[in-house]
Design a protein that fits this description.
The complex is a heterodimer.
Chain A lengths: L1 H12 L4 H7 L5 H8 L18 H14 L1 H21 L2 H12 L5 E4 L15 E5 L2 E12 L6 E7 L11 E7 L5 E5 L11 E12 L3 E2 L5 H35 L3 E2 L2 E2 L4 H30 L4 H30 L6 H10 L7 H12 L34
Chain B lengths: L1 E5 L2 E3 L6 E3 L2 E3 L5 E3 L1 H17 L2 E7 L5 H10 L3 E5 L9 H15 L4 E5 L10 H9 L3 E12 L4 E8 L2 E8 L2 E5 L11 H9 L4 E2 L37 H14 L4
Parallel strand pairs in B: 1-6, 1-8, 6-7, 7-13, 8-12, 9-12
Antiparallel strand pairs in B: 2-5, 3-4, 9-10, 10-11
Helix pairs in contact in B: 2-5, 3-4
Classes of the chains: A alpha+beta, B alpha/beta.
């Protein structure tokens, strides 16, 4: 039912406009408000904290449905919910959760994630943004780049170097809750991206921004661990979304292959087209099982860094492959924006870069396989999914994900 | 107010219908709540929100029809009842209307029974009127707007969408109302609603439990079912030396083909 509900929303309220939004390089801001109204922006945050109390598999299903229409919507879920809100759920104090997570879960405030810098992407420990302690405050300076929702978010999770003298640069990082309206914060969008053109991506700059120490997330020096834990949430939504993109490619290809005639028959009758379609089916089913496994592990409260990374790596690579094949099936028509597949191809490419490039995931997988990488336990773990007691009826709610 | 909304589980409208060996097949299309009924659920919920009371979703069908009721619950209905009996599976609208009327009587003290204008599978559109007839209530069919509802005065005023225009009708309650899609925009199920629906206990009533000692046989039968013949289309280019000549030729051809 979750899946159907999100599908209906995306099909009715986004699909008719997405081509125009993509051309204009911006979506109607009302759609973000609508996502909040429907509870999507806090769907897997516990109801007691202002969310909808759904499980992590439901989150995956919602992301699959959103990206089956357009990647820009799923990006909102990844950044606002996967990277930021789940990070607050895992690491935030009660006060931080009340002040920041609550409004985010209710969709009243939008949240972003500021990790990447102009000179530091995959090499997170090389980031140079600074957080200088001054009494009970921190002074933030630095610039973040390729930030989703840069011009839309009300809050950011901001990573900076608080201890430049740490022996290991990873240990010098700390995380902060940064309101976009603090004096010294400036931001803007970047235009001319290859894909996800309906979404906001930009830069955020901090110039002597004063922040009370109570807005530090986690302890000083925990920034790198927090960033990696947040990525387990974000990458999961990317994996599920990319699965939806594969499905969109498959569905578009099936439609076209059943209509287009060549050499006296439908092109779907030709083995070379069938080969491409079979590949998309294989990719879709595999990607889906991989993200569902990661979602199940999250529900159970099990560490899922390896499984989530694998799901993200596979699904994003496969979605680019599927989009390329879908375009090939559509021939020259696929090369124009009369059909959706050219947008799918452009959108799919970005996901092989953000939330861990494909190369980073390859290293992660090799590291686990070779025993060079092991998950150490964290001071705060992402809470398992616990069906909450519904205040109205006093009985626990069941898991509701319908596959 | 006690409001009943009658829903039906139907194949998804995106399903491809095929006819093979005299049988209609929907393939493995997912089953959903009849899309017309979503408008009825929405109007029922709006009536409750304006005047208080409760909304009970009611369906007749196999065990799987529970899912359609869960959709109605997730949209916000307070309760749901499934009437299920092996003897009802082959029922036509005359049979189903008898069952629905009996169930509505068993629920008791119902002020309004909402229906979608028709179901997307059988498309008969007569069940609401049949239920009204069996209950002895006014049948307000094809309602495009509820303009006034007065639970204390026991009246309802509606606009009916007819081919000739809008017809304004005022009727006493209880009444049966079947709605068109102009009436409102159905809401999506909420996550909270989905959670509630997933744990809801839906009572199942048998035919005997609603007081039907015998199930009448269906009066309708389908002796033969076949796919509509394919329409042959062809293109004919009409040319001429001038616009007037082309127009004259075109008019002549249209008259010849009895289009005009």
């Amino acid at each position: 039912m979750v899946q159907q509900m999100v599908r209906d929303f995306a099909q009715r309220e986004v699909a008719p406009f997405i081509k125009e939004w993509d051309r204009q390089q911006g979506m109607d801001p009302a759609i973000l408000h609508r996502m909040g109204e429907l509870g999507l922006l806090g769907m897997c945050i516990p109801a007691r904290l202002g969310g909808q109390g759904m499980d992590y598999i439901s989150l995956g299903l919602a992301c699959e449905e959103l990206e089956a229409v357009d990647t820009s919507l799923r990006v909102v879920m990844s950044v606002h919910l996967g990277l930021n809100s789940l990070g607050l759920l895992q690491w935030g104090t009660d006060e931080q959760q009340r002040c920041y997570l609550g409004p985010q879960a209710r969709g009243e405030r939008l949240a972003g994630f500021c990790l990447t810098e102009p000179g530091a992407g995959s090499d997170v420990a090389a980031l140079v943004s600074s957080a200088r302690r001054e009494g009970s405050d921190y002074i933030l300076n630095g610039e973040k780049m390729w930030i989703s929702l840069a011009s839309r978010a009300d809050h950011f999770l901001w990573f900076a170097r608080a201890n430049p003298d740490a022996a290991d640069p990873h240990d010098g990082l700390s995380a902060f809750l940064l309101e976009a309206d603090r004096p010294g914060v400036t931001r803007g969008d970047i235009h001319g991206k290859l894909g996800i053109r309906a979404g906001s991506t930009g830069w955020v700059h901090c110039q002597d921004v004063r922040l009370p120490a109570s807005l530090r997330l986690g302890e000083e020096g925990e920034g790198f661990k927090i960033a990696m834990a947040c990525l387990d949430g974000g990458r999961y939504t990317v994996a599920a979304g990319a699965t939806g993109l594969i499905r969109a490619c498959l569905e578009a290809s099936l439609r076209y292959a059943g209509q287009r005639q060549a050499f006296g028959r439908e092109v779907g009758q030709f083995q070379l087209i069938q080969h491409k379609i079979a590949g998309m089916v294989q990719s879709y089913e595999t990607a889906r099982l991989l993200y569902l496994r990661a979602g199940w592990m999250k529900n159970e409260g099990r560490r899922n860094t390896r499984e989530t990374s694998l799901a993200k790596w596979f699904a994003t690579e496969a979605s680019f492959g599927a989009a390329s094949e879908a375009l090939q099936i559509h021939g020259a028509y696929g090369y124009s924006d009369e059909y959706d597949v050219e947008r799918y191809l452009r959108n799919a490419r970005g996901a092989m870069l953000y939330e861990g490039t494909s190369e980073i995931h390859e290293l992660v997988q090799a590291g686990y396989a070779l025993g060079q990488r092991r998950d150490a336990s964290l001071r705060c773990e992402l809470p398992a999914y616990v069906p909450e007691r519904d205040p109205a009826s006093g009985s626990p709610s069941g898991r509701t994900a319908s596959l | 107010m006690n409001i009943v909304v009658c829903v039906k589980q139907t194949p998804d409208t995106a399903a491809t219908v095929t006819v093979e060996n005299g049988k209609v097949s929907w393939g493995d299309a997912p089953l959903v709540i009849n899309p017309w009924d979503e408008f009825a659920v929405e109007q029922a919920l709006r009536s409750r929100e304006a005047h208080g009371g409760k909304v009970i979703a009611l369906t007749v069908g196999p065990e799987a029809a529970r899912e359609a009721l869960k959709h109605a619950l997730a949209m916000g209905c307070d309760e749901a009842i499934l009437v299920s009996d092996p003897g009802l599976l082959a029922g036509d609208s005359l049979v189903i209307s008898k069952v629905l009327a009996a169930a509505i009587e068993k629920i008791g003290a119902v002020d309004l029974a909402f229906f979608g204008r028709q179901a997307v599978d059988s498309d008969t559109g007569v069940t609401p009127a049949q239920v009204a007839r069996r209950l002895g209530w006014p049948a307000l069919t094809l309602v495009a707007a509820v303009t006034a509802l007065d639970p204390a005065g026991k009246t309802i005023s509606v606009d009916r969408a007819l081919d000739e225009g809008r017809q304004q009708v005022k009727s006493p309650l209880p009444a049966v109302v079947s709605v068109t899609k102009e009436i409102c925009e159905p809401r999506y199920p909420s996550f909270m609603g989905i959670r509630k629906a997933s744990k809801a206990t839906i009572p199942v009533w048998s035919a005997a439990e609603i007081g039907l000692t015998s199930i009448p046989a269906a009066a309708l039968s389908w002796p033969e079912l076949f796919a509509p013949p394919k329409v042959e289309t062809r293109v004919e280019m009409i040319t001429g030396d001038s616009v007037d000549a082309v127009a004259a030729k075109l008019a002549a051809r249209l008259l010849e083909e009895k289009v005009l």
